[in-house]
Amino acid sequence: MGSAQAIARKRVPLGFAVAAMTLVAADPTWESWRAGLLVALAGEALRVWAAGHLEKSREVTRSGPYRWLGHPLYVGSSLIAIGIVIAARHVVVTAVALAYMIVTLAAAVRTEESFLRERFGETYDSYRASRAEPMQRRFSLGRALRNREHRALSGLAAGFALLALKILGNL
Fold first, then answer.
1. 52-64: average pLDDT
2. What confidence tier does 142 reach under pLDDT thresholds 50, 70, 90?
3. DSSP the chain
4. Can you say how many angstroms the Cα of residue 131 is from the centroid of all Cα atoms in its chain?
5. Rounded Cα distance, 28 and 114, in Å
6. Could you give the CA distance from residue 81 to residue 100 in angstroms, rounded to a whole number?
7. How many other C-beta atoms are found inside a 10 Å radius of the C-beta of residue 52?
8. What is the pLDDT of residue 103?
9. Longest alpha-carbon distance in the chain
10. How confident is the model at residue 131 (pLDDT cuts 50, 70, 90)?
11. For residue 106, which of 22, 4, 1, 2 has the smallest C-alpha distance?
């Protein structure tokens, strides 16, 4: 297993460590919390939209946000991270979150693109070069649930609930 693959596989447990550090270091206000939540919700909305179109490992998806973005789930995750940084209002959180996102998402993208290129060959290369025809597929909430997007939504809700408790002085 290469280093990119190892980092990509560890991004969730590393994310929990970053989340714990964020909660300890955060200095949120209601204003920063609301602003961060709006950005994070936009990121989660993009993730849900993408997950509702994605047939993971079965095809090169070219519907929904995949018509315009190569990695909409990662773009959504980046928006969520930016929202958390805004809500947390702390320079250390900003630095750690930025480092985490750059390292883990770069590794995940590299690993995913290698898999897709190996599995789908020219079809994937055409998609990445914007030469592939878009698919006509409707959004499916069932597909989003099969792709376990409810986990990201639950994590987002829990994170912002904990930040709210910190504002209230209960953490």
1. 94
2. very high
3. --HHHHHHHTHHHHHHHHHHHHHHH----HHHHHHHHHHHHHHHHHHHHHHTT--TTTS---SGGGGT-S-HHHHHHHHHHHHHHHHH--HHHHHHHHHHHHHHHHHHHHHHHHHHHHHHTHHHHHHHTT-SPPP-----HHHHHHTTHHHHHHHHHHHHHHHHHHHTT--
4. 26
5. 39
6. 10
7. 22
8. 93
9. 55
10. confident
11. 4
Is the confidence at residue 132, as pLDDT, over 90? no
Residue 169: other Cβ atoms inside 10 A: 6
Average pLDDT, the chain: 93
Residue 9 burial (10 A CB sphere; 0-12, 13-18, 19+): middle
* Mean of pLDDT values over 23-40: 97
pLDDT of residue 1: 63
CA 34 to CA 14: how far, in whole Å?
A: 26
Amino acid present at 83: G
Q: Which of 10-24, 34-48, 154-168 has the lowest mean pLDDT?
A: 10-24
Task: Identify the residue whose tokens are 């959180």.
Answer: 93
For the chain, give the number of residues.
171
What predicted TM-score, i.e. pTM, was given to this entire model?
Answer: 0.91
